[in-house]
Amino acid sequence: MITVSVNGKTVELQEDATIVDAVASTLERELTPEGRPADGGRLGVAVSLADAVVPRSAWQSTVLAPGAELELVTAVQGG
Amino acid sequence: MTAHPRTSAPPETAARPATDPDASPRWVEPTSPQTEPTSQPGPATQPAAPPPLTIGGYTLENRLIMGTGGASDLAALEHALVASRTTLTTVALRRYSPETKTSVFALLDRLGIDVLPNTAGCYTARDAILTAQLAREALETDLIKVEVIADERTLLPDVVETLEVTERLAAQGFVPFVYTSDDPAAALRLEQAGAAAVMPMGSPIGTGLGILNPYNIELIASRASVPVVVDAGIGTASEAAQAMELGCDAVLVASAVTRARDPRAMGRAMSLAVEAGWFAGGAGRIPRRNEALASSPQEGRVASGDAEHPPTSNGAPDPSAAPTITEDPR
What we know:
A: five-stranded mixed β-sheet, 1 helix, B: alpha/beta, globular
């Protein structure tokens, strides 16, 4: 297992976990390898790693290093 | 933004017939889908509703853009959005939380309302650009409401940072809807920087003070070659109508609806006001005058006594005189 930070919280993921795994674990939703909800529809979530946006197309190929700091954002009421 | 003369001419902006000040008067524009184009002379046709507005390639079907901030809960928000008939609604971007999940996005998705992500809460160009990029990834849209705030107390826009963000996001293929002050010079600079729509504030965010400087808003609208949307400060429906009468193309409201005692009723009121203001702006108000101007004919009046002598200063007609019909002096 490795530990990474998701939105400031420490979470445990298996070795070689990718961003898809981290997002699926945080949202408690099953995702396709392309980072879309397995049950269809749109996910509505973006990911940044070390202050850089990771495009959804790169989620599956981005293997997380231990201690990686991920931010998951979505739409909320405001503005 | 002070003493630097521009060395090059403003860039050519794409043709935007819906907002071209030289375009045909509104009441003959055959752009509404509900209106059959007519080629024959005769009485001007009147669209049943304001036509859609084109903003940088995006078609805004309804000219009332809604915000989501301030609603007590999602059910209240849903009622307000439905009543407002909005087709585009702005949302903020924040860390995913297990409590709220992706519920706001899911709500708009279910209602078929397009999402306009914003950079609310950003104080620097750097944060606003990162937020915009996250928004594009999360919500799968190139639309972005650029909002860079100068300080927490006034929430006034920082126009210098805003200009930089606009330039950079436009270069990255975004469609920037740019929240700004009601400064006409700044509005032109933002347009040249790539703003797809310029969104001057009526008054500071959340104040409900209405349009504090109608002169500036009218000047911005009359000179812009991109759509102008009044954003922030609107408190009630008459102020939304006023924005449209001043020549703006659309209105964005959030608190005015979500924090109203009855958000659903205010949502509907705003929708009607934007429509009424659009028609009124195109209809052309009468000039203001200092003296009264009767709207009914002076001839053929029913009057008692001598019609050449209107009631005296106490206003009482002579009770002994029978009513007579005045004759046309010709």
